[in-house]
Amino acid sequence: LFAEMTVSPLPDILGQGAMIAIVDQSEIEESEQVRRDFVANVSHELKTPLTAMMGFIETLRGPARDDARARDRFLDIMEREAGRMNRLVSDLLSLSRVQADERRRPSSEVDLPMMLRGVLVTLGQAIESAGITLETSGLEGAQRIPGDPDQLVQVFQNLIENAVKYGGGGQYLGVTLRRINYEPTLRGPAWAIDVSDKGEGIDEIHLPRLTERFYRVDTHRSREQGGTGLGLAIVKHIVNRHRGRLKIVSHKGQGSQFTVILPESHNRA
Ligand code: ADP
């Protein structure tokens, strides 16, 4: 391109020392496109429950006005739809917070095994009522690394909730903490947390896009399970902020393993 450009003297509009800024529009336009898609997705996700609720309000005002049973049923559905909107708005707020934070390294520390034990206690009821066998290893004792405790809780809550939601058929959940002496991608020692299930698994073609906002393998199934499609996007941004890595290994029909690798210290990473 440059070889074909003819350089002619600039008109002296700014006097001596005029400057030309060459801006690569393609990148700006691409992110503009991504932003537009995101707004369209959010609008669609909010509009679906809203439309359902407006329909039921109309029915409650009209045909179902004097039918107590129909009224109760419609109110239940409206409550569920409002819950869906509530979860979506909470996840959007989380996502926007973690994206804003992404360039600032966490200044606090987190005790990894204690944090993981806490998450398992919080989700204990859900794990138990899904009839899932929980296997853990390496969660004893204490191990402190740099990290934002609230954000890392969110990471493992999302991953474990997914294993419960989509791993149901396998009835198994594994949570493992292990030390890696030298993690090449982080050029130093690291801690790896594996969250595994023996559930439905994910087809290979979906894996590269799984952490995109609103990307779901099966939208209907995700919605039915109360998913917003934002969980793994939130996980990705938090792991990035910690200068960590997220690895996903999955085989259709056999199960999935999500591994979060976090640097032991921030000196090297
Ligand atoms: P959602 O709110 O839909 O669960 P996520 O961002 O958490 O959104 O996950 C994106 C999609 O990845 C899910 O809709 C599901 O299709 C797939 N997925 C996530 N975790 C698992 C898992 N453990 N097993 C199978 N599929 C999964």
UniProtKB/TrEMBL annotation:
<dbReference type="GO" id="GO:0004721">
    <property type="term" value="F:phosphoprotein phosphatase activity"/>
</dbReference>
<keyword id="KW-1003">Cell membrane</keyword>
<keyword id="KW-0597">Phosphoprotein</keyword>
<keyword id="KW-0902">Two-component regulatory system</keyword>
<keyword id="KW-0808">Transferase</keyword>
<feature type="domain" description="Histidine kinase">
    <location>
        <begin position="41"/>
        <end position="266"/>
    </location>
</feature>
<protein>
    <recommendedName>
        <fullName>histidine kinase</fullName>
        <ecNumber>2.7.13.3</ecNumber>
    </recommendedName>
</protein>
<keyword id="KW-0472">Membrane</keyword>
<dbReference type="GO" id="GO:0016036">
    <property type="term" value="P:cellular response to phosphate starvation"/>
</dbReference>
<dbReference type="GO" id="GO:0000155">
    <property type="term" value="F:phosphorelay sensor kinase activity"/>
</dbReference>
<keyword id="KW-0547">Nucleotide-binding</keyword>
<dbReference type="GO" id="GO:0005886">
    <property type="term" value="C:plasma membrane"/>
</dbReference>
<keyword id="KW-0067">ATP-binding</keyword>
<dbReference type="GO" id="GO:0005524">
    <property type="term" value="F:ATP binding"/>
</dbReference>
<keyword id="KW-0418">Kinase</keyword>
